[in-house]
């Protein structure tokens, strides 16, 4: 049952990955269906977040999507980004091997700060429009994702290929994992699916 604000639940999703892989561009494509040319994109400092409604199987969800800085010097308060996150998207650039090789480090950070074992993880290979410069094949990334028990998708923030699918698949998986988003019933309140951003933190171990 939806809450008085009309939302079934509020979900927190985090974007992490090396600088320049396109995290901010994926967020902009998903929320505003826009892509900024290279000279108009600024590096994220600290964290940025956008709120986006999503209809899923006839129900309305509120997504708060947090875009973190890839550059180490801009990463402050890292642990607080992870707090209450139900889904994490680990982004690499298919035309840059280093960004793929460093996924291990991002997984380490994730497991350090996000103690919720059910958090849904997804690896996203961005910039597939740069097919000529591709250095990470879909096959290699799929094998890595399988080994890491993680969802995997390729996309392009530039052409919009796969972007909506990535967020929808992540949300679907979160919704299939009730421990991540259902508020435990309390004696005084049997409505157990509505959350606000502040209430969310109560139910999650992140
Ligand atoms: N060709 C291509 N370029 C992209 C794509 N997505 C992002 N870019 C470009 O890659 C550069 C970095 O994009 P950002 O979105 O700022 O990357 P970021 O991961 O948010 O970087 P930080 O904020 O430093 O962590 C920009 O010049 C974008 O225009 C894509 O799908 N294809």
TrEMBL record:
Domain of life, per lineage: Eukaryota
The protein's enzyme class: hydrolase
Reaction equation(s) it catalyzes: GTP + H2O = GDP + phosphate + H(+)
Gene3D superfamilies in UniProt: P-loop containing nucleotide triphosphate hydrolases
InterPro entries hit by this protein: P-loop_NTPase, Rab, Small_GTP-bd, Small_GTPase
Compositionally biased tracts (Polar residues): 185-197
EC number: 3.6.5.2
Region described as Disordered: spans on this chain: 184-206
GO molecular function terms attached to this record: G protein activity; GTP binding
GO biological process: protein transport
Keywords tagged on the record: GTP-binding, Hydrolase, Lipoprotein, Nucleotide-binding, Prenylation, Protein transport, Transport
Family stated for the protein in its record: Belongs to the small GTPase superfamily. Rab family.
Protein name, as recorded: small monomeric GTPase
Origin species: Rhizophagus irregularis (strain DAOM 197198w)
